[in-house]
Amino acid sequence: MTSNERTVTLTDGHTITIGGRVTMGDFRRWAKAEQSGDLETVYQHLAKVIIRWDYPGDPKAPESYDDLTFQEYRLINEAVAAWLRDEVAAKN
Questions:
Q1: Measured at the alpha carbon of residue 87, what is the angle toward residues 86 and 92, in degrees to the nearest 5?
Q2: Helix 39-49 and helix 70-91: axis angle, to 10°?
Q3: CA distance 30 to 38
Q4: Which residues contact residue 39 at a Cβ distance below 8 angstroms, ignoring those fewer than 6 apart?
Q5: What DSSP string describes 10-76?
Q6: Quick one: pLDDT at residue 1?
Q7: Nearest alpha carbon to residue 31 among 84, 67, 72, 86
Q8: How far apart are CA 79 and CA 83, in angstroms?
Q9: Digit-coded pLDDT (tens) for 34-89
Q10: Taking the model in full, what pTM does it have?
């Protein structure tokens, strides 16, 4: 377990574990992909920070994100965004 690893129970009852290192370059590319709707790139970035989940598929495999419902994707994305905000706050 890394020092910034966090397990979150989502409102749908599923759990995900988030952690790892995100550089500013990673964050910039991720934000740009989110804004442009480039889900393939967003999936790649999520796969870098989601360590495990209890959804079907492997969270480290970007193609697994295509099997999520929109609601599941939204909950995961919100949890990762909260984790990133907390990571930035902890560094300041």
A1: 95
A2: 60
A3: 9
A4: 33, 65
A5: -TTS-EEEE-----HHHHHHHHHHHHHT-HHHHHHHHHHHEEEESSSS-TTSGGGGGGS-HHHHHHH
A6: 44
A7: 84
A8: 6
A9: 999 999 999 999 999 999 999 999 999 999 999 999 999 999 999 998 998 887 76
A10: 0.86
